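Lecture 7 notes: from sequence to structure.

We start with a single chain of 201 residues. Read the sequence below before looking at the structure.
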Amino acid sequence: MSYYELWAILASWRREFSIAEFALTFASPDPRKVLHDMVGKGLLEHPKRGRYSVRSIGDYVKMKNDVNAGYDLLNEAGMPYALTGLDGVFAWTGGAYNAGRFFGFYPIHLKVRSRDVPFWRRFLTAAGKRVFTTERRPRETIFGVFYILHAAMSVEAETVNGVKVEPLRETLEFCRKNIYTFEPALNMLTENHRVSPRASA
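Now the structure, written as tokens:
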């Protein structure tokens, strides 16, 4: 039985329960691990010691699509990162330009040091998030907020509205390379930051 099947059963059984109640009802070699894993996947909540509650499908969808929480999570890692590409544009325009993303499908693009990729995989997975690298195409349908890691030898970042973002010059270059999609953003950035729309020599 998958965790998602068990989630559906638990929703029909009890909305809140203890570890002991779960262990008495559902045969499992390690009930604590099962419940821990389901909390990690966002299927259950752990409001207090020894107690669990089943997250409704509505709450689950909201949790999976909480964009602000997706960005806030990054600062909890305590590791270098920089929002890059589309997210660099989103950050530097103050959220005014956001292309190719919508409720239900929201990739967050992170530049991280190559040596830190295993850490980011563990950290984001432990938070119940899906994480991929630019080299690995997803083999399944992806929805909600998820992360795409862009590995680099080093990471240069500036703080913009509470998050770490690659320098403006890199975001401008991204816009120039993808001008058909990001020309409005390029115009917005060059006007707001008083820089040339053309690349410097």
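Residues 65-193 form a domain with the Beta Polymerase; domain 2 fold (CATH 3.30.460). Keep this in mind for problem set 3.
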